[in-house]
Amino acid sequence: MSGACTVVTGASSGIGAAVAARLLARGENVVAVARRADVLAELYGTCPTAVCAAVDLESPDATARVAAAIKERFDTVRGFVHAAGFVSPAPLGLVQDETAHRLFSVHALFPLQFLGWLAKRTNHSDGAAAVLVSSLAAHEGDCGNAAYAAAKGAVEGLLRPAAAELAPRGVRVNAVVLGVVDTPMAQGSWMARCTPEQIDARRARYPLGFGTPEKVADVIDFFLGEASAWITGQCLVADGGHQLT
Ligand SMILES: NC(=O)c1ccc[n+]([C@@H]2O[C@H](COP(=O)([O-])OP(=O)(O)OC[C@H]3O[C@@H](n4cnc5c(N)ncnc54)[C@H](OP(=O)(O)O)[C@@H]3O)[C@@H](O)[C@H]2O)c1
After folding, report:
1. Whether residue 216 has its Cβ less than 6 Å from ligand 1
2. How many A from CA of 179 to the centre of ligand 1?
3. How far is the centre of ligand 1, averaged over its atoms, from the C-alpha of 213 (Å)?
């Protein structure tokens, strides 16, 4: 296999899986990154244009390992979607250093290092695009979300300098800032602690309803493609109108 690929992190679940499925359905090459090798194999094992990279993005050699998976099969990088992530809510006084380091490693340090790797390469395609996934948590005052919000804030801080440095090389970098998306992350975190009535009350503050992985994949696809060829360094809020309420 050769040609250009899109690296999708978080490809074993939720938004990352929806993005990878969309690209593969069009016959594009994808490097699918997540920790769970069995899930990646189940989702992508029979797909001829997918390469599975079971990599823990918390590990110091994560970028080197993802780079090795790319080089093994593909010539160039056309896209990078960073949708891996996790939440670990805790009141400010109970945030563990280790958890905060893990959050920063996965959400912010990995994309910083990966974009750095990309900046040193000459083998990215012309018109390559990166899309980083952020959260409204970085803009709101949800109690118990300080460490996660700080990590997402770091992603948004990275966005514009990275976009400025990479623009002369023909690489665009944008971010999507998401409200609630109905994925295993949301289901396994705050939704699991809420009554159905509490979930409905939160949904009522989303005029267009909660997001789905497919709706978010539409937005990410826009930033990956030609239709956004003149846009870089931008954060687009996709929140079903939540900020209007
Ligand atoms: N869902 C929401 O309401 C919402 C709202 C705002 C922003 N976001 C953001 O959207 C992104 C996608 O979230 P989602 O809702 O799709 O969550 P999800 O369904 O839980 O998927 C998270 C993905 O990240 C991967 N991942 C987690 N830790 C990893 C690590 N250390 N190394 C490699 N991969 C790791 C998981 O795979 P493995 O477990 O196999 O490693 C999984 O594929 C995240 O950045 C999240 O913060 C989500």
Report:
1. no
2. 14
3. 11
pTM of the model: 0.97
206 counts as catalytic: no
Instruction: Report domain extents, the chain.
Output: 4-238
Q: Would the CB of 103 count as within 6 Å of ligand 1? A: no
> 4-238: CATH homologous superfamily?
NAD(P)-binding Rossmann-like Domain (3.40.50.720)
Q: Edge-to-edge strands of the sheet including 76-82?
A: 50-54, 29-34, 4-9, 76-82, 124-135, 172-178, 235-238
User: Residue 156 has which token pair?
Assistant: 């948004």
Q: Which residue has the higher pLDDT, 134 or 169?
A: 134
pLDDT tens per residue, range 127-146: 899 999 999 999 999 999 99
Q: Are 63 and 84 in contact (CB under 8 A)?
A: no
Q: Note the pLDDT of residue 149.
A: 98
